């Protein structure tokens, strides 16, 4: 993107003030008001006082009134309370100017000093007649509103006419409410005067009323000029009607208009109607309708026609229903006017441009031309100031977003962001300084509007004042206006940031430091990762989305990224699924879930913007690109129970039950506890709520710290598993058991998926909120990862977790030991060096008096300690000396966690997974788990140290390296490598594929072999493959469809085969006679009692190719004998695969009673074939 030009200009306007004072004895008179102003105006605190925007000298200001060009000067009246910074005792203040920039304060024009206006001299307008200045206003008194007139001979002092009120409520149409009848705008057309007023109808809608008069005193009702609808608010205010460029324009302020897209997000909105008025019939034919400003603080617009023929508008730069910081701080004032703006029509819609007179007050500080920015930020130097003008023309070449930070300090900043993908211009004041609250359901800290590029360019004019920002986009096509209240002295810097679309795809990921990168745990290619999202089994693959910041290794600018896998071990990174590119999710595309509907993938997520969180939907036709739906947000905070906080409402988990869709979300209550809220829908778009609260202090520690209970909830945030029963009719959850799901230091935000095998698979973020990230601190370009996926089951009505069995395909046995007694000593098992490994052991503690330790990743000064204490039956994970320290907010013992693990028949079993910077412990078949990050700084030794205080018998101990082939490197066009099995199963030649899969899958052989064979057997694959000068032919068997025909060399298959195993041998053959030494070796290890030769394997494969045998066929020729133990092991393994925990426990118990380890037997029997 090119910055075609930037002008940063500081304003040096000096507002002159003069006062004409008078005195009068009666209460609420103009004289009394002027005396008060003169005596107290110097006490007003200047901190946030504006420099080139109009303000009253003291007190409260709201709507502009009587705005008129008269006798060579601009006159501005305004709603005014000089006595305090609150909307009360409303007078009319008065000022005049020759240039709309420098203003002279005049005496208060009117006070509430008559019965018909005793409760306020409300808004109105002015008109010149016979050289005199007439003002017409609403008198407010005793729940009645009437229209009144006052006249000035000198343009300063005003006399209310004796005929007041000149328009009574008795003239109203029958559907009008007399207590809401106000804001007369008087105009002259030919020889007749007209006034438009507004009233609220009995149906609680707005309407514009038209009156006519010959003399401004006697008025008759003519018609309802425009009738509002329920979609246009409950009441209209402050009408202004005029002709512009041959069209009639009606501007009014609407109260509580329903939100539509980016429009009407404030409690009140200014609307501009363009069309044609039939003055004879007294009706308005509307052609276009537009919200005039999309910022947070803009209301009650009034216009005038000046001597240059310009239609000039000015508005109140605040909003009803808000907090007013200057009033709350006791600074003696509240409210200001916007910069006056020139109105014109473009494509039949109103546009606004700043008055050119302001240019006379510019002092150019910096000008930058033809500057390109790409994937970087820069701060404009030499620019310090809270009062200034910034002008930019941006050529958007290829950017995902452009960001300007203004009023930037150490901790404060105001965001101006442009999203090219959606053409949205966003103004965000979340971090601008003092907080502003409002009556809206949506946040009052962010607003946005669509601004299409013009010739790939975006022009912005930004006006900064002490406590305001006004943005004019594309020459005033759209504007955003807001108040800001910085608290830091330094909040006056400006920074520009541009991020290109292809940021992730370019060389940035090559810069990621690999030191602590995990090898078999899921990680993003670059940047920050946290919660897993949208975890689903879909069309034969596991899809994982996740919270992601590709641009840095800190939590910010959260996207949804995406990956998929066939086996939960090998992952393929897909394009980023969603970016924070809409107004409702600019603050982050937060966590959510996914569901399949009509063959499409739907994701439901939380859109975060400012201080509001809403639930949104996106849909994908191709399972890769996602389109956010026009109905977003589909659930907003207005649906929450009354005790919920709208800014803590997130993380929808969607599922289907019967014909209905349900979603559970969480919210924080006003009592600072957590609650789960249940919604239901027929179509995923229209949701109705049925709230209920669980019996817990918090759900997923939703912004609430769980109190520590024994060994539980030691972390600042915890994952809790409730087991019980849902009453779907009542929408209630009856809790039976509660358990912390993992007792380690880094485990959060668990999500689950049901796969095609009926398994409930869980995955979690392997980190925690409030912890430091050493990889980020060390600038390694990444932070965060996921846990090993886990299979969930119930045991004694509590959740248990076991590692996915697919990971076993990546094991390479290094050492195994059994029946080893350790008594009051330490033993080192050598030859087991490895940062990436799996360790299994079962320890019999019948005679152990105190404890045993297992020390891993041991080096000179570092180690990770796992300890079991018999007396308390506690399993302890201690990373105090594991390496780089991880700072935690909750500490002194942040590096030690423990959990009770009762012995089973005097035994405890542990399965420990080590990766470069993580450790995961599964105790007693997943009854308890502990997960933690570790960052060793020294090379680990090649030993495991086991220490026993007392006597311990190690029934078995096995150590395996884990090697996972990089899916990206070894995929063949990302199709063959992962899709061949399904393709083969659907083909006429599927029999061979099934047979080969059977032998390698049932016997748990490395899937790397199977990848090779299924490629070679696939229909259309080469008939002949040349590897290292040796030729392997595919079986012809008279079926031409089996192979592609001509011999070819497939580089991808060559690469795969070359990496299979050291023992791989390929022999030339004319049929499917295959000789694979490593297969024979592994089969020998499995069966254990008989050597399996290469000839056996060759014979079996020949029989498979001819369809004459089966792996389970007892009559197979040449099959070695199989012991009963191995047969029983095979049954146990199939049981494990099917996640039947009850049978699993019984089988394991039976096997282990005879010293058969079902998880390590496959690797532990020594082969005797000499291969």
UniProtKB/TrEMBL annotation:
- EC number(s): the record gives 3.2.1.26
Signal peptide start and end residues: 1-22
Keyword annotations? Glycosidase, Hydrolase, Signal
Q: Name one GO biological process term.
A: carbohydrate metabolic process
Domain Glycosyl hydrolase family 32 N-terminal span(s) in chain numbering: 53-354, 521-803
Q: Name one Pfam family in it.
A: RGS
* Cellular component GO terms, alphabetical: cytoplasm
Q: Which InterPro entries match?
A: ConA-like_dom_sf (IPR013320), GH32_Enzymes (IPR051214), Glyco_hydro_32 (IPR001362), Glyco_hydro_32_C (IPR013189), Glyco_hydro_32_N (IPR013148), Glyco_hydro_beta-prop_sf (IPR023296), RGS (IPR016137), RGS_sf (IPR036305)
Q: Please state every residue range assigned to the domain named Glycosyl hydrolase family 32 C-terminal.
A: 377-500, 822-959
Gene Ontology MF annotations: beta-fructofuranosidase activity
The protein's matches in CDD domains, at most eight in alphabetical order, are given as: GH32_FFase (cd08996)
Span of domain RGS: 968-1038
What the entry lists under Gene3D superfamilies is as follows: Exo-inulinase, domain 1, Glycosyl hydrolase domain, family 43, Regulator of G-protein Signalling 4, domain 2
Q: Which top-level group of life is the source organism from?
A: Eukaryota
- Family statement: Belongs to the glycosyl hydrolase 32 family.
PANTHER family, per database record: BETA-FRUCTOSIDASE
User: Known NCBIfam families for this protein?
Assistant: scrB_fam
Q: What is this protein called?
A: beta-fructofuranosidase
Q: Which organism is it from?
A: Aromia moschata
Q: What is the lineage of its organism?
A: Eukaryota, Metazoa, Ecdysozoa, Arthropoda, Hexapoda
